[in-house]
Specification:
Elements (H helix, E strand, L loop, with lengths): L1 H10 L13 H8 L2 E5 L8 E2 L5 E2 L1 H14 L5 E5 L5 H6 L5 E2 L7 H4 L3 E3 L4 E3 L1 E6 L14 E5 L3 H12 L5 E5 L2 H9 L5 E5 H11 L6 E3 L7 E3 L2 E3 L3 H20 L6 H4 L5 H7 L5 H5 L5 H9 L2 H13 L22
Parallel strand pairs: 1-4, 1-5, 9-10, 9-11
Antiparallel strand pairs: 2-3, 6-14, 7-13, 8-11, 8-12
Helix pairs in contact: 3-9, 3-13, 9-13
């Protein structure tokens, strides 16, 4: 037995450690002082680059909240631009630490080396059309040309619907979202189809006259959207998961970026645990006690984030993206 143990110990220096096992994502991010965030340009409400070259919108602000929590600096983000056809491979190949954009949670994606985070937006696939065309409903799109971005659930949904219905859509696929919208606004298609929030964001950003374009009332699918990480680092998945939950939990508890000082003196155990003056939630994640406070200071709570981006640019009501206590679908597990 002793000889066997000696032989095994002698082999240890030659044992190959899988990539990423020697240092966790959290350790590397904190050491480098940068969170690498995979994003796509999806218009001013969701994600865009302003005239000063700074990223803004719902998704980039979540990236900043992650950086605030993990390294204490909301500006410690490297935005890595990706595309619909390579975003998952880029994540698996470690080009970035987290993918934060309009990514639909599906079974095939979830079981292919990816881990999905709490749902931060509920959307549905819709159709945008040119008002003078006379189109009013989805039935009016039969035999029409539909622009869609390839390698997306939107493309799959159109193909599936064509197979089981008599719509006979002429599906025209493009390699990028920008190219898809450019073709549509150039009247190469009768309608364009993707998530309604993306349609609304790009209509405001790119349409020659946004008021000349409208949505059909029907929705083709449900699109639950969340951030995505690799499935090889459970600790990093926990960190991202609870950062998103903290945004929602803060709104549930009435904690905002404007009342943090007041709330830090709260008598509520739930608020105290969230803001780090009670309990050890930060320690359980590998973070310091004030991680969630920094997220809220940077991003605001979920409601503030929604209103500052989707509400401001698109004039959207919360609807199903309101809290569960107000008839919506947004909720957070208890932070105990």
């Amino acid at each position: 037995m002793i000889r066997v143990l000696v032989a095994l110990l002698a082999l240890l220096p030659f044992v190959t450690i899988p990539n990423g096992a020697s240092a966790s994502t959290l350790e590397r991010v904190q050491e480098d002082g940068v969170v690498r965030c995979g994003v796509r340009e999806l218009g001013p409400a969701l994600s865009y680059i302003d005239e000063q070259g700074k990223w803004g919108g719902f998704y980039p602000d979540i990236c900043r909240g992650i950086a605030a929590a993990v390294i204490g600096d909301e500006e410690g983000v490297e935005f890595v631009v990706t595309g619909s056809d390579d975003r998952f491979n880029d994540l698996k190949e470690d080009r970035y630490d987290v993918l934060v954009e309009s990514t639909t949670w599906t079974l095939s994606r979830d079981t292919n080396g990816l881990t999905y985070m709490p749902l931060y937006l509920f959307d549905g696939q819709g159709f945008l059309y040119f008002k003078p065309s006379g189109i009013k409903t989805m039935a009016d799109l039969n035999n029409k040309r539909i622009c869609v971005e390839g390698h997306t659930t939107s493309e799959i949904n159109l193909i599936d619907h064509n197979r089981t219905n008599t719509t006979n859509w002429d599906i025209r696929k493009f390699s990028t979202m920008e190219g898809t919208f450019s073709a549509f606004f150039d009247h190469q298609c009768d309608a364009i189809s993707t998530d309604v929030l993306v349609l609304a964001s790009f209509r405001q950003a790119l349409a020659p006259d946004p008021d000349q374009y409208a949505f059909v009332p029907e929705r083709l699918s449900k699109e639950p959207l969340s951030a995505v990480v690799r499935d090889d680092d459970a600790q990093w998945a926990d960190v991202i998961r609870w950062i998103v939950n903290a945004l929602i939990n803060a709104e549930e508890l009435g904690v905002t970026s404007k009342n943090l000082v007041e709330m830090s003196n709260s008598k509520s155990p739930e608020i105290n645990r969230l803001l780090g003056s009670e309990g050890d939630l930060g320690k359980k994640l590998g973070l310091d006690p004030r991680w969630a406070e920094r997220v809220i200071r940077s991003t605001g709570n979920y409601g503030e984030l929604f209103e500052r981006t989707l509400g401001k640019h698109l004039k959207l009501e919360r609807g199903i993206n309101d809290l569960w206590t107000k008839g919506g679908l947004i909720w957070s597990p208890p932070m105990h």
